[in-house]
TrEMBL record:
Name of this protein: H(+)-transporting two-sector ATPase
EC number, as in UniProt: 7.1.2.2
Gene3D superfamilies the record matches: 2.40.10.170, ATP synthase, F1 beta subunit (1.10.10.910), P-loop containing nucleotide triphosphate hydrolases (3.40.50.300)
Region of interest (Disordered), residue spans: 1-39
InterPro entries: AAA+_ATPase (IPR003593), ATP_synt_F1_beta_sf (IPR042079), ATP_synth_F1_beta_su (IPR020971), ATPase_alpha/beta_chains (IPR050053), ATPase_F1/V1/A1_a/bsu_N (IPR004100), ATPase_F1/V1/A1_a/bsu_N_sf (IPR036121), ATPase_F1/V1/A1_a/bsu_nucl-bd (IPR000194), P-loop_NTPase (IPR027417)
Amino acid sequence: MASRRLLSSLLRSTSRRSLSKSTLSNSHPKLSTSSTRRASPYGYLLNRAADYATSAAAASPSSQPPPAKSEGTKGKIIDEFTGKGSIGHVCQVIGAVVDVKFDEGLPPILTALEVQGHSIRLVLEVAQHLGESVVRTIAMDGTEGLVRGQPVLNTGSPITVPVGRATLGRIINVIGEAIDEKGDLKTEHYLPIHREAPAFVEQATEQQILVTGIKSKLDASIWNLCSLISSLQVVDLLAPYQRGGKIGLFGGAGVGKTVLIMELINNVAKAHGGFSVFAGVGERTREGNDLYREMIESGVIKLGDQQSESKCALVYGQMNEPPGARARVGLTGLTVAEHFRDAEGQDVLLFIDNIFRFTQGVLDGKYDDLPEQSFYMVGGIEEVIAKAEKISKESATA
């Protein structure tokens, strides 16, 4: 169209020049005779070309609509800040570490991503920004079968898990899925596992001992004449447990840390009527199964129609699972306990067994490469375990 307009302007200028020359030739008869002799036989064709160019320029539209953009696999971005709804693609898989590239809608740190078209629900958590729209993520499950170019959806929020009374008597994993083969959890309450800790001014300052009631029988023979049998509340006497505080159980393998925790759960559930949340971090499958069976036998967990009367919720990230699950299952159990404390005002006893395997999961998952995770890695959990005003939550870590 531009070339036609240019041709039209050139032809018009040529016609003007010829018109001025004809006027000049009329004033000078001699020139008129010579110009008539030099008249071009194709002048008529030039005039027709000028008329065609002018009519074509007038008939053509002034502007054309831009071509429609194909969205392809980018996805529809709902939130510009978090990039929710954007689609990325896997560009590298190194064990439990997965790099994902986004053309637009780059997710923030700690955002949960879900792999599309995978055999299982695979959740990735953003741990680092590598530059050039590439994020490094930690997988919460096995990465077997994951290939480069596979689409990944940005959820726009951290890992969100179900909370509330529906979790009582059930076993869930790090992403909130039920793994006890009793169907999905039916609840309307969900919370992200990454949240801010309560403010310092909200923490209560009163001190009160939590009576555990754990007793030990000591047998002593005196001159082989009689046997003295005494019952002592060993924990309450030698290591009193502060209400709303934190306590750690240290010992080698097989000395009875998990057994002591089981006694605490049983006694607190019966004596205080509160709820208990057990987070098994790197727990052996045998130990987790035995703990679940013992809770059923003792009545802490009830099955069938009486399941809502259970006093404990179990969150497992077992030893055979990837390091990402072991590094975040403690926060999942903490989120379940927080809901009972904040929303329902219940006294909650939180158990994390064990914190050493949590640290191993952090190191194995390449979290130690991050500056904010290379020092006291348990601080994120310990910050949130705080006693708010008029509400208490006890924590025991083994």
